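hiii, so i know i said id send this last week but things got crazy w the move. better late than never?? heres the sequnce for the chain we talked about at the cafe, plus the structure i predicted for it. fair warning i was half asleep when i ran it
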Amino acid sequence: MHKKIIQNKYANYQYFIIKKLEAGISLQGWEVKAIRAKKIEINHAYIFIKNNEAYTSNIIIHPITTASSHIQHDISRHRKLLLKKNELHLLSKENNNFKYTIIPLELYWKNQWIKISIGIGKGKKQYDKRAEIKKREWLLDKNKVLF
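okay and structure toks below
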């Protein structure tokens, strides 16, 4: 059973998600405590590949007030993703060859581990977003008339 921590609400609005993967994320102790308290933002986050390793960027974790003052808290540091070699190869290929964007979709608990669901997607243009809104409103109106 997965307990959802946070979801990137703008991911499906801004991107066509083609493929989803699950990855572990390397965190420090104070970050886990802050995530447990839901002091995290992933709306503007993305994932990049460097030296055959995947890292997150712009995931903001605010420290809790009871956190240690002996540790320097970097709230938006690059965090390493824990992926298998074939998954890293897939991400690298999709990112370089097809110019897809890799974004985090949600964070959740899987047993005692924090996992991140990542999506490979292509950015939507403004007219795609408008068409999607128009289609959604039309479906709502159609359901009101029929039911």
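btw The two ends are 35 Å apart (CA to CA). thought thatd interest u
miss u guys!!
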